[in-house]
Design a protein that fits this description.
Two copies of one chain form a homodimer.
Chain A lengths: L1 E5 L8 H14 L3 E3 L10 H18 L2 E5 L10 H12 L3 E5 L6 H8 L3 E3 L2 E3 L15 H10 L18 H20 L3
Helix pairs in contact in A: 3-5
Chain lengths: 190, 190
Protein backbone atom coordinates (compact mmCIF):
# COMPACT_ATOMS: atom_id res chain seq x y z
CA UNK A 1 0.00 0.00 0.00
CA UNK A 2 1.35 3.42 -1.01
CA UNK A 3 0.48 6.35 1.25
CA UNK A 4 0.78 10.02 0.35
CA UNK A 5 2.15 11.90 3.39
CA UNK A 6 0.48 15.33 3.21
CA UNK A 7 1.19 18.15 5.63
CA UNK A 8 2.98 21.40 6.29
CA UNK A 9 5.99 19.27 7.30
CA UNK A 10 7.49 20.20 3.92
CA UNK A 11 7.93 23.74 5.29
CA UNK A 12 10.06 22.68 8.30
CA UNK A 13 13.75 23.59 8.31
CA UNK A 14 14.50 19.85 8.57
CA UNK A 15 11.75 18.89 6.13
CA UNK A 16 13.81 16.24 4.37
CA UNK A 17 14.77 14.55 7.64
CA UNK A 18 11.12 14.63 8.82
CA UNK A 19 10.11 13.04 5.52
CA UNK A 20 12.71 10.29 5.99
CA UNK A 21 11.39 9.68 9.49
CA UNK A 22 7.78 9.39 8.30
CA UNK A 23 8.69 7.17 5.36
CA UNK A 24 10.71 5.01 7.78
CA UNK A 25 7.70 4.57 10.06
CA UNK A 26 5.62 3.48 7.06
CA UNK A 27 8.29 0.97 6.03
CA UNK A 28 8.35 -0.46 9.53
CA UNK A 29 4.63 -1.20 9.17
CA UNK A 30 5.04 -2.74 5.72
CA UNK A 31 3.79 0.31 3.81
CA UNK A 32 5.35 2.65 1.25
CA UNK A 33 5.32 6.31 2.26
CA UNK A 34 5.34 8.94 -0.51
CA UNK A 35 6.59 12.29 0.75
CA UNK A 36 5.78 15.47 -1.24
CA UNK A 37 8.46 17.05 -3.35
CA UNK A 38 8.25 20.66 -2.21
CA UNK A 39 11.85 20.70 -1.06
CA UNK A 40 13.45 18.61 -3.76
CA UNK A 41 13.19 21.28 -6.45
CA UNK A 42 15.08 24.48 -6.00
CA UNK A 43 15.04 26.46 -9.25
CA UNK A 44 13.25 29.56 -10.55
CA UNK A 45 9.83 30.37 -9.14
CA UNK A 46 6.98 29.69 -11.59
CA UNK A 47 8.56 26.67 -13.23
CA UNK A 48 9.53 25.21 -9.88
CA UNK A 49 6.09 25.61 -8.35
CA UNK A 50 4.44 24.00 -11.37
CA UNK A 51 6.92 21.13 -11.24
CA UNK A 52 6.11 20.62 -7.55
CA UNK A 53 2.38 20.68 -8.30
CA UNK A 54 2.70 18.13 -11.08
CA UNK A 55 4.96 15.94 -8.98
CA UNK A 56 2.60 16.00 -6.01
CA UNK A 57 -0.43 15.31 -8.20
CA UNK A 58 1.31 12.35 -9.83
CA UNK A 59 2.31 11.07 -6.39
CA UNK A 60 -1.29 11.34 -5.15
CA UNK A 61 -2.57 9.54 -8.23
CA UNK A 62 -0.16 6.67 -7.61
CA UNK A 63 -1.00 6.40 -3.89
CA UNK A 64 -3.69 4.21 -2.32
CA UNK A 65 -4.12 6.36 0.76
CA UNK A 66 -3.31 9.70 2.34
CA UNK A 67 -2.17 10.58 5.85
CA UNK A 68 -2.85 14.30 6.25
CA UNK A 69 -1.09 16.26 8.98
CA UNK A 70 -3.87 18.66 10.03
CA UNK A 71 -1.92 20.19 12.95
CA UNK A 72 -2.83 23.91 13.00
CA UNK A 73 -0.60 25.93 10.68
CA UNK A 74 -0.29 29.76 10.76
CA UNK A 75 -3.69 30.16 12.37
CA UNK A 76 -6.38 28.17 14.13
CA UNK A 77 -6.79 25.55 11.43
CA UNK A 78 -5.03 23.18 9.06
CA UNK A 79 -2.74 24.15 6.19
CA UNK A 80 -4.88 24.88 3.12
CA UNK A 81 -2.50 23.01 0.81
CA UNK A 82 -2.93 19.88 2.91
CA UNK A 83 -6.71 20.40 2.96
CA UNK A 84 -6.66 20.61 -0.86
CA UNK A 85 -4.79 17.30 -1.01
CA UNK A 86 -7.20 15.61 1.40
CA UNK A 87 -10.13 16.72 -0.78
CA UNK A 88 -8.35 15.48 -3.87
CA UNK A 89 -7.76 12.04 -2.37
CA UNK A 90 -11.30 11.77 -0.97
CA UNK A 91 -12.71 12.51 -4.42
CA UNK A 92 -10.52 9.79 -5.92
CA UNK A 93 -11.92 7.28 -3.44
CA UNK A 94 -8.58 6.75 -1.71
CA UNK A 95 -8.31 5.78 1.97
CA UNK A 96 -8.19 9.02 3.99
CA UNK A 97 -6.35 9.21 7.30
CA UNK A 98 -5.37 12.29 9.26
CA UNK A 99 -4.03 13.52 12.54
CA UNK A 100 -3.56 16.75 14.42
CA UNK A 101 -1.07 17.23 17.23
CA UNK A 102 -3.45 19.72 18.84
CA UNK A 103 -6.44 17.94 20.41
CA UNK A 104 -8.45 21.15 21.02
CA UNK A 105 -11.65 21.71 19.10
CA UNK A 106 -11.61 24.23 16.26
CA UNK A 107 -13.76 26.68 18.26
CA UNK A 108 -11.36 26.51 21.22
CA UNK A 109 -8.44 27.30 18.94
CA UNK A 110 -10.16 30.26 17.29
CA UNK A 111 -10.45 31.77 20.79
CA UNK A 112 -6.65 31.84 20.99
CA UNK A 113 -6.47 34.07 17.91
CA UNK A 114 -9.56 36.25 18.18
CA UNK A 115 -12.13 37.55 20.61
CA UNK A 116 -15.08 35.20 20.18
CA UNK A 117 -18.59 36.32 21.06
CA UNK A 118 -21.77 34.32 21.36
CA UNK A 119 -25.03 35.64 19.96
CA UNK A 120 -28.25 33.60 19.85
CA UNK A 121 -26.13 30.56 20.73
CA UNK A 122 -23.85 31.03 17.71
CA UNK A 123 -20.17 31.88 18.03
CA UNK A 124 -18.63 34.66 15.97
CA UNK A 125 -15.04 35.96 15.69
CA UNK A 126 -13.90 39.59 15.92
CA UNK A 127 -14.80 40.11 12.23
CA UNK A 128 -18.31 38.81 12.87
CA UNK A 129 -17.70 35.60 10.93
CA UNK A 130 -19.34 32.51 12.41
CA UNK A 131 -17.09 30.02 14.18
CA UNK A 132 -17.90 26.37 13.48
CA UNK A 133 -18.92 24.98 16.85
CA UNK A 134 -19.61 21.29 16.31
CA UNK A 135 -16.92 20.17 18.75
CA UNK A 136 -14.86 18.93 15.79
CA UNK A 137 -11.09 19.27 15.45
CA UNK A 138 -11.32 21.40 12.30
CA UNK A 139 -13.62 22.32 9.42
CA UNK A 140 -16.36 19.72 9.04
CA UNK A 141 -15.54 18.96 5.40
CA UNK A 142 -12.13 17.58 6.39
CA UNK A 143 -13.19 15.89 9.61
CA UNK A 144 -16.14 14.04 8.07
CA UNK A 145 -14.10 13.14 4.99
CA UNK A 146 -11.89 11.21 7.41
CA UNK A 147 -14.92 9.66 9.17
CA UNK A 148 -16.52 8.53 5.94
CA UNK A 149 -13.57 7.85 3.64
CA UNK A 150 -11.14 6.45 6.20
CA UNK A 151 -10.72 6.70 9.96
CA UNK A 152 -11.54 9.30 12.64
CA UNK A 153 -9.04 12.14 13.13
CA UNK A 154 -6.21 10.98 15.39
CA UNK A 155 -5.14 13.37 18.17
CA UNK A 156 -2.91 13.01 21.23
CA UNK A 157 -4.35 13.48 24.74
CA UNK A 158 -2.36 16.66 25.10
CA UNK A 159 -0.27 18.82 22.84
CA UNK A 160 3.23 17.26 22.62
CA UNK A 161 6.27 19.41 23.42
CA UNK A 162 7.22 19.64 19.76
CA UNK A 163 4.12 19.43 17.54
CA UNK A 164 6.21 19.16 14.37
CA UNK A 165 8.49 16.36 15.54
CA UNK A 166 6.21 14.12 17.59
CA UNK A 167 5.23 11.17 15.42
CA UNK A 168 2.98 9.21 17.80
CA UNK A 169 -0.31 10.30 16.18
CA UNK A 170 1.22 9.88 12.75
CA UNK A 171 2.31 6.33 13.63
CA UNK A 172 -1.22 5.53 14.82
CA UNK A 173 -2.42 6.47 11.33
CA UNK A 174 0.25 4.27 9.75
CA UNK A 175 -0.83 1.39 11.98
CA UNK A 176 -4.48 1.86 11.00
CA UNK A 177 -3.53 1.85 7.32
CA UNK A 178 -1.51 -1.33 7.80
CA UNK A 179 -4.46 -2.97 9.57
CA UNK A 180 -6.74 -1.95 6.73
CA UNK A 181 -4.31 -3.48 4.25
CA UNK A 182 -4.11 -6.71 6.28
CA UNK A 183 -7.93 -6.89 6.38
CA UNK A 184 -8.09 -6.47 2.61
CA UNK A 185 -5.57 -9.27 2.12
CA UNK A 186 -7.47 -11.53 4.52
CA UNK A 187 -10.61 -11.00 2.47
CA UNK A 188 -8.92 -11.63 -0.86
CA UNK A 189 -6.07 -14.11 -0.23
CA UNK A 190 -3.55 -14.40 -3.06
CA UNK B 1 -23.90 24.58 -16.20
CA UNK B 2 -24.11 24.09 -12.42
CA UNK B 3 -21.43 25.79 -10.32
CA UNK B 4 -20.62 24.99 -6.71
CA UNK B 5 -19.97 28.28 -4.86
CA UNK B 6 -17.32 27.40 -2.28
CA UNK B 7 -15.99 29.86 0.27
CA UNK B 8 -16.03 31.07 3.84
CA UNK B 9 -19.04 33.20 2.81
CA UNK B 10 -21.18 30.65 4.65
CA UNK B 11 -19.73 32.01 7.90
CA UNK B 12 -20.86 35.61 7.32
CA UNK B 13 -23.67 37.02 9.48
CA UNK B 14 -25.62 37.61 6.26
CA UNK B 15 -24.52 34.32 4.70
CA UNK B 16 -27.91 33.54 3.19
CA UNK B 17 -28.18 36.95 1.56
CA UNK B 18 -24.63 36.65 0.18
CA UNK B 19 -25.57 33.26 -1.22
CA UNK B 20 -28.64 34.74 -2.90
CA UNK B 21 -26.50 37.48 -4.37
CA UNK B 22 -23.97 35.02 -5.80
CA UNK B 23 -26.64 32.69 -7.15
CA UNK B 24 -28.32 35.73 -8.74
CA UNK B 25 -25.10 36.71 -10.50
CA UNK B 26 -24.82 33.18 -11.87
CA UNK B 27 -28.41 33.29 -13.11
CA UNK B 28 -27.74 36.59 -14.84
CA UNK B 29 -24.99 34.86 -16.83
CA UNK B 30 -27.18 31.85 -17.66
CA UNK B 31 -25.64 29.54 -15.04
CA UNK B 32 -26.99 27.70 -12.00
CA UNK B 33 -25.21 28.55 -8.75
CA UNK B 34 -25.21 25.95 -5.96
CA UNK B 35 -24.55 27.52 -2.56
CA UNK B 36 -23.37 25.30 0.33
CA UNK B 37 -25.83 24.35 3.01
CA UNK B 38 -23.87 25.24 6.14
CA UNK B 39 -26.51 27.67 7.33
CA UNK B 40 -29.63 25.83 6.30
CA UNK B 41 -29.36 23.19 9.00
CA UNK B 42 -29.59 24.24 12.60
CA UNK B 43 -29.98 21.18 14.83
CA UNK B 44 -27.75 19.26 17.24
CA UNK B 45 -24.02 19.24 16.59
CA UNK B 46 -22.72 15.92 15.24
CA UNK B 47 -25.81 15.05 13.22
CA UNK B 48 -25.99 18.56 11.77
CA UNK B 49 -22.35 18.65 10.74
CA UNK B 50 -22.65 15.26 9.05
CA UNK B 51 -25.79 16.39 7.25
CA UNK B 52 -23.98 19.49 6.02
CA UNK B 53 -21.04 17.38 4.84
CA UNK B 54 -23.28 14.97 2.94
CA UNK B 55 -25.29 17.83 1.46
CA UNK B 56 -22.19 19.68 0.30
CA UNK B 57 -20.64 16.52 -1.14
CA UNK B 58 -23.84 15.72 -3.07
CA UNK B 59 -23.94 19.31 -4.34
CA UNK B 60 -20.33 19.09 -5.52
CA UNK B 61 -21.02 15.79 -7.25
CA UNK B 62 -23.94 17.35 -9.12
CA UNK B 63 -22.00 20.47 -10.14
CA UNK B 64 -19.98 20.94 -13.34
CA UNK B 65 -17.68 23.58 -11.91
CA UNK B 66 -16.53 25.29 -8.72
CA UNK B 67 -15.91 28.95 -7.95
CA UNK B 68 -13.77 28.99 -4.81
CA UNK B 69 -13.55 32.14 -2.70
CA UNK B 70 -9.88 32.00 -1.63
CA UNK B 71 -9.92 35.40 0.11
CA UNK B 72 -7.72 35.02 3.23
CA UNK B 73 -9.68 33.70 6.19
CA UNK B 74 -8.47 33.82 9.83
CA UNK B 75 -4.84 34.00 8.79
CA UNK B 76 -2.66 34.65 5.76
CA UNK B 77 -4.29 32.04 3.52
CA UNK B 78 -7.54 30.56 2.27
CA UNK B 79 -10.16 28.76 4.35
CA UNK B 80 -9.13 25.09 4.66
CA UNK B 81 -12.72 23.90 4.05
CA UNK B 82 -12.78 25.74 0.74
CA UNK B 83 -9.35 24.33 -0.14
CA UNK B 84 -10.67 20.84 0.57
CA UNK B 85 -13.58 21.46 -1.81
CA UNK B 86 -11.31 22.80 -4.54
CA UNK B 87 -9.17 19.66 -4.28
CA UNK B 88 -12.28 17.51 -4.40
CA UNK B 89 -13.55 19.18 -7.56
CA UNK B 90 -10.12 19.14 -9.26
CA UNK B 91 -9.89 15.40 -8.65
CA UNK B 92 -13.32 14.90 -10.19
CA UNK B 93 -12.20 16.71 -13.34
CA UNK B 94 -14.63 19.60 -12.84
CA UNK B 95 -13.91 23.11 -14.11
CA UNK B 96 -12.05 24.96 -11.33
CA UNK B 97 -12.36 28.73 -10.91
CA UNK B 98 -11.31 30.83 -7.97
CA UNK B 99 -10.81 34.36 -6.75
CA UNK B 100 -9.29 36.21 -3.83
CA UNK B 101 -10.24 39.75 -2.85
CA UNK B 102 -6.69 40.27 -1.60
CA UNK B 103 -4.26 40.64 -4.53
CA UNK B 104 -1.11 40.36 -2.37
CA UNK B 105 1.15 37.36 -2.75
CA UNK B 106 1.06 34.70 -0.03
CA UNK B 107 4.53 35.67 1.20
CA UNK B 108 3.49 39.33 1.53
CA UNK B 109 0.49 38.32 3.61
CA UNK B 110 2.49 36.07 5.92
CA UNK B 111 4.58 39.16 6.77
CA UNK B 112 1.43 40.81 8.18
CA UNK B 113 1.02 37.98 10.69
CA UNK B 114 4.58 37.00 11.56
CA UNK B 115 8.14 38.25 11.51
CA UNK B 116 9.60 36.76 8.34
CA UNK B 117 13.33 36.23 7.99
CA UNK B 118 15.38 35.34 4.97
CA UNK B 119 18.17 32.78 5.21
CA UNK B 120 20.11 31.54 2.17
CA UNK B 121 17.47 33.18 0.00
CA UNK B 122 14.62 31.25 1.67
CA UNK B 123 11.91 32.92 3.73
CA UNK B 124 10.89 31.53 7.11
CA UNK B 125 8.24 32.62 9.63
CA UNK B 126 8.73 33.19 13.37
CA UNK B 127 8.39 29.43 14.02
CA UNK B 128 11.12 28.71 11.45
CA UNK B 129 8.67 27.22 8.96
CA UNK B 130 9.43 28.02 5.32
CA UNK B 131 7.19 30.56 3.60
CA UNK B 132 6.24 29.67 0.02
CA UNK B 133 7.78 32.42 -2.06
CA UNK B 134 6.76 31.74 -5.64
CA UNK B 135 4.92 35.05 -6.03
CA UNK B 136 1.64 33.12 -6.05
CA UNK B 137 -1.57 34.24 -4.33
CA UNK B 138 -1.69 31.19 -2.05
CA UNK B 139 -0.41 27.64 -1.65
CA UNK B 140 0.79 26.30 -5.00
CA UNK B 141 -1.50 23.26 -4.94
CA UNK B 142 -4.58 25.50 -5.12
CA UNK B 143 -3.16 28.10 -7.48
CA UNK B 144 -1.91 25.60 -10.05
CA UNK B 145 -5.10 23.55 -9.76
CA UNK B 146 -6.84 26.67 -11.06
CA UNK B 147 -4.22 27.17 -13.81
CA UNK B 148 -4.44 23.59 -15.01
CA UNK B 149 -8.05 22.60 -14.28
CA UNK B 150 -9.74 25.93 -15.05
CA UNK B 151 -8.63 29.57 -15.13
CA UNK B 152 -5.97 31.67 -13.38
CA UNK B 153 -6.84 33.02 -9.91
CA UNK B 154 -8.90 36.22 -10.26
CA UNK B 155 -7.89 39.15 -8.00
CA UNK B 156 -8.82 42.84 -7.93
CA UNK B 157 -6.12 45.50 -8.45
CA UNK B 158 -6.50 46.54 -4.86
CA UNK B 159 -8.29 45.20 -1.81
CA UNK B 160 -11.95 46.35 -1.97
CA UNK B 161 -13.42 48.21 1.01
CA UNK B 162 -15.47 45.19 2.03
CA UNK B 163 -13.71 41.97 1.00
CA UNK B 164 -16.71 39.84 1.90
CA UNK B 165 -19.31 41.84 -0.02
CA UNK B 166 -17.49 42.90 -3.16
CA UNK B 167 -18.55 40.58 -5.96
CA UNK B 168 -16.53 41.96 -8.87
CA UNK B 169 -13.90 39.22 -8.85
CA UNK B 170 -16.60 36.63 -8.25
CA UNK B 171 -18.55 37.91 -11.26
CA UNK B 172 -15.42 37.71 -13.41
CA UNK B 173 -15.29 34.00 -12.52
CA UNK B 174 -18.97 33.60 -13.40
CA UNK B 175 -18.35 35.31 -16.75
CA UNK B 176 -15.41 33.00 -17.49
CA UNK B 177 -17.55 29.96 -16.69
CA UNK B 178 -20.31 31.25 -18.98
CA UNK B 179 -17.77 31.79 -21.77
CA UNK B 180 -16.46 28.28 -21.28
CA UNK B 181 -20.00 26.95 -21.51
CA UNK B 182 -20.68 28.97 -24.67
CA UNK B 183 -17.47 27.60 -26.23
CA UNK B 184 -18.54 24.05 -25.41
CA UNK B 185 -21.94 24.64 -27.04
CA UNK B 186 -20.29 26.19 -30.11
CA UNK B 187 -18.14 23.07 -30.48
CA UNK B 188 -21.07 20.67 -30.09
CA UNK B 189 -24.16 22.46 -31.45
CA UNK B 190 -27.48 20.88 -30.51
Amino acid sequence: MKIYLAGPDVFLPDAIEVGRRKVGLCTRHGLTGLYPLDNAIDTAARVASLAIFRGNEAMMNSADAIIANLTPFRGPGADAGTAYELGYMAARGKLCLGYSNDPASYAERVRRFSAVTSRDGRLADAQGLAVEDFGLGDNLMMIHALDLHGCLLVTPRQVPLDVWHDFAAFETCVRMAAERLAALHARAPG
